[in-house]
Amino acid sequence: MNLILYGNPATKKNSMQIYKNKKTGQSFLSQSVRYKEYAKDCGRQITGKYKKEIDYPINLKCVYYRKTKHRVDLTNLLAATCDILADYGVIKDDNCNIVVGHDGSKVLYDKNNPRVEIEIKEVDGYEF
């Protein structure tokens, strides 16, 4: 299965923000507005034909095309993408029994058309 999610890929882990609960005064961490908007936008692009709740071993290849050439952590991008795919029903979970590899994943530059191109392939004969 191939899927393209348009928008400048955002990481989840490096964009935490500290907020204060107005009722209790307690501080808490939450995702940044930028990541939340990116995840929501991806969710709108994931239509019913992609919502398969995949529960068998797969290789998840993600080729990220970012708007800028700033350094970014590929591992954090992959974690964010896995969470988005799980949250919107493409994969059942992002644990190591389902997402067994990210072979071929990389980060490239495309100023005019930022996106992530996702290729999901079943891995035959995988045992954990």
Q: Topology, please?
A:
Blueprint: E1 2-6, E2 16-20, E3 27-31, H1 33-45, E4 58-66, H2 74-87, E5 99-101, E6 106-109, E7 115-122
Parallel strand pairs: 4-5, 4-6
Antiparallel strand pairs: 1-7, 2-3, 4-7
Written account of the structure:
By secondary structure, the chain is an alpha/beta fold. It has a single domain (2-122), classed as Holliday junction resolvase RusA (60s Ribosomal Protein L30, Chain: A). It contains two helices and seven strands. It has helices at residues 33-45, 74-87; strands spanning 2-6, 16-20, 27-31, 58-66, 99-101, 106-109, 115-122.
Secondary structure category: alpha/beta
CATH level 1 class label: Alpha Beta
CATH superfamily: Holliday junction resolvase RusA
Sum up the overall morphology in one term.
Answer: globular
The percent range for strand residues is: 25-35%
Number of strands: 7
Question: At the third CATH level, what is the topology name?
Answer: 60s Ribosomal Protein L30, Chain: A
Helical content, roughly?
10-25%
Number of DSSP helical runs: 2
Topology pattern, helix = H, strand = E = EEEHEHEEE
- Structurally, the number of domains stands at 1
Brief overview:
This protein is an alpha/beta fold and 128 residues long.
